[in-house]
Automatic annotation (TrEMBL):
InterPro entries linked to this entry: Cyt_c-like_dom, Cyt_c-like_dom_sf
Protein name: Cytochrome c
Keywords per UniProt: Heme, Iron, Metal-binding
Domain Cytochrome c, chain residue ranges per copy: 19-97
Length: 99
């Protein structure tokens, strides 16, 4: 598991301060996973694995992450995440970094 975290997204991780990528990865698995399922294949929230999101523009995903989906359980994460961090998570999801 630790190795997967380290090698999961080396290129993207460079855009964030040291250690932040690992924190975001934990956030995705724990906080996002609490609704989207531990393996992100769906729960209260829909399946957000790479194969399901394929073709979705990463800017669109980052916008959903930052602002949530009004009228649904999907909360806005802007209070916790910067634009760069939301973009990192969008790339992480599209790259299937959770697998
Ligand atoms: C409280 C529950 C909850 C949490 C926590 C949550 N989500 Fe969601 N999410 C949802 C729901 C419900 C939807 C579906 C909204 C709709 O009906 O369009 C959704 C939709 C999405 C979508 C759009 C999927 C699509 O196919 O359109 C993405 C991407 C997403 N969430 C990512 C995340 C990420 C990343 C996190 C963690 C930072 C997160 N979510 C945390 C409930 C949650």
């Amino acid at each position: 598991m630790a190795l997967l975290l380290v090698f999961g997204a080396p290129a993207l991780a460079q855009e964030l301060p040291p250690g932040r990528a690992a924190e975001l990865e934990r956030l995705v698995l724990q906080d996002c996973g609490s609704c989207h399922g531990m393996t992100l294949k769906g729960g209260l929230g829909p399946d957000i694995r790479a194969e399901t999101l394929a073709g979705t523009p990463s800017e669109g995903l980052a916008a959903i992450i930052l602002d949530g989906v009004p009228g649904t359980a999907m909360p806005p994460w802007r209070p916790l995440l910067s634009d760069a961090e939301a973009a990192w998570i969008a790339g992480y999801l599209l790259d299937g970094g959770n697998e």
